[in-house]
Amino acid sequence: MDTKQCTYCGEEILAAANECKHCEEWLENAATAIECSNPKVKKKHVSAIVVGAIAIAAFLSTALVFADDKMSDEQLRKAIVGRYYCTETDDSDEDVTITVSGIDVFNANGVYEFIGTIVISVFDDYDDMSTLKYQLEMSGKYEIENSYIIYDCKFEDIHITLIESDNRELSRYFNNHYIPLLKYDLMLDNIEKIIELTDRFLKTEIEDEGEKIITTYIRM
Questions:
Q1: Domain segments of the chain: what residues?
Q2: pLDDT in tens, 169-193
Q3: pLDDT (tens digit, 9 = 90+) per residue, 103-140?
Q4: How many angstroms separate the CA atoms of 96 and 178, rounded?
Q5: How far apart (Å, rounded) are the C-alpha atoms in residues 75 and 63?
Q6: Could you tell me which of 99, 110, 181 has the C-alpha nearest to residue 144?
Q7: Which pTM was predicted?
Q8: DSSP H helical ranges for the chain
Q9: CA–CA separation, 220 vs 215, rounded Å?
Q10: How many CB atoms lie within 10 A of CB 139?
């Protein structure tokens, strides 16, 4: 019975075989295999190619950049759909630290949702810290134009609720003064540019008083 060597692993197989019984490669792709007269050397080369291909595929899946010069707005609309985790901390005021974290959802029908928490830490003159924790829920429409995400979120669709506080006076002050301003800021800060979009994360950029702020959303 006629036999031949598998062009992938170098093992002996039937001449009429379409698939190698040893390495399970389909032999229609034999033309793409590296030619080598020594089966052992060939097997090493093929293994290296397989490992290299897997590494390259993994790199491309996590590092391919979808930017305005790479993808159209229509492609970005499809690629952005999903759930993302994000956390941001603002400690520009030495006495107040604000951390917002939660889950952003971009739906295929152009609806955007966020649910998460706002943690506010306030330090007094004696470096004693008081902490307020709020639940934040907001929803609205979104559109992508020229690689910018444009949000349309109304004031009444932003809900901020105090859920924890260790300082009643401070929470009263923030509820009356800070939270209404924050809702307006969330409503008005309605545009950010997509600078990277992969199957692992979304990275955006906004400009605030001349300063560029980068935000990374981790795809879930």
A1: 3-63, 73-219
A2: 889 988 998 888 888 888 887 899 9
A3: 999 999 999 999 999 999 998 877 788 999 999 999 99
A4: 12
A5: 17
A6: 110
A7: 0.64
A8: 39-63, 73-79, 168-173, 179-188
A9: 16
A10: 16
